[in-house]
Predict the structure.
Amino acid sequence: MPSLVATGLVKRFGGITAVDEVSFAVNPGEVVGLLGPNGAGKTTTLRMVAGILEPDAGEVRLGDVDVIRQRIAAKRRMGFLSGDTRLYQRLSSREMLWYFGRLHVMGDEAIARRVGQLARELEMEEFLDRPCGSLSSGQKQRANIARAFLHEPDLLILDEPTAALDVMSGQFIVQAIRRERGAGRTILFSTHVMGEAEYLCDRIVLLHRGRVIDAGTLSELLARSRRSNLTDTFLLYAREGQESRIPNPKAIHAQTLHRPDHRPQGDPGDAARPAHAADDGRAAGPGVSAAVHRSRQTAGIAA
C-alpha cells in the first residue's frame, strides 16, 4: 500500500492563515495523529489531504498519485470521515452501505461480504436494518465508520471519529482503527483527546495555530519536552513565548518519512456521504435515487 506525503501545505481564508507550511508523512500500517485544540488547523489539513479543499501552496501525494491534480484517482483509494458527515435518514445502515458500495463500483458479492464483516466487527447487527434517523449518536458513528471502511481503501482519513461518543462507542471505533492498521492501511487521524492519541497513534503531529510545533513518537515528544505526559508537552509548546522550543520544521518533515519501531501495546480500553448529498436519497436527484432504489432491491428491502 502507498505512503501519504504532505509537503508545505498552506491554506488562507481571507486574511487568516489557517494552515501554515504543514508537512508530514504516513506510512502503510501505521496511524499518524494530528493533535491540537479546536482551531489548530486539523480539519482544514485533513480536507486538503482528502482533495476537498485546494491548498494555496504545497502538495499531497498518495503513492504516485498527486491528490490535488488527480483527485478522482486519489479518492478511489481513500476512505474519509469528517466530523460533520451525515447519513441518509430514511435508509437503514444496510441500505446505506449497499448504496456506497455501488458508488465505489463494488460487486454484489464483495458488498455483501464487507457489510457482513463490518456489521460483526462493529456490532451493528441489532440496528443494521433500522432507519439511520432512529439511531443513537454512537450507532450513527459506527455506521459512518463502516461506510468509510467499506471499499477497503489504501488510505483512511478520520477527523475526530470518537468526538462526543461514550466510552463503549468510542472503544468500538478505536478497535476498528487498530484492525485496519493491522491490515496494513495508511491511517491519518485527528483528535484533541490526548489520551486517545497516546493509545492509538504510532506517531503524533502537534498542531497549534496552523503550524507544526513538534512531531514524532510519544516517547520522542516526551523526551524532547522533558514532560511525563502528552498534555503537559502540548501545553509547554503552545504557551506564549515558547517558540524557541519549536524544532526545525524541515527536520520534523524528514523524520516523519521514517517508519518507527514504536507500536502501542495492549488494549486501548476506555480509550461519505458526500458533503453535498441530501439527507434523503429520494431528494438527491434521479441518479442518486436510482442507485438507492437498486441498493434497496439488492439488499432485499422494499422501497
About this structure: Residues 4-87+135-272 form a domain with the Rossmann fold fold (CATH 3.40.50.300). Residues 167-182 form the longest helix (16 residues). The first strand starts at residue 4 and ends at 13. The mean pLDDT is 81.
